[in-house]
Fold:
Amino acid sequence: MALDLKTVITIVVLVIFSLVGGYYVGMAVGVKKGLVQAQVEAKQKAEDSAAASEKLAAQAANPFSASSGNPLGGVNVNPFANVKTNPFAQ
Structure:
């Protein structure tokens, strides 16, 4: 079963048109979906950033918040450092 030249050319042209058409339709749909997804991600990132900066500003502006750690943590005072344990020793 041999195909004549006209049939082969028709099949090749249809395959090329199908590939090119599929590529362009796929790009059009993909770009639209990608654009929508990028807009959603940008909006979510902006909301998260705003919430984080609000929380940080609220923490910085609160004078009654508990300080982190012990305020006397760096003080090394021993009241018994100069006490003689044996009064008869020199």
Remarks:
- The mean pLDDT is 85.
- The first helix runs from residue 5 to 61.
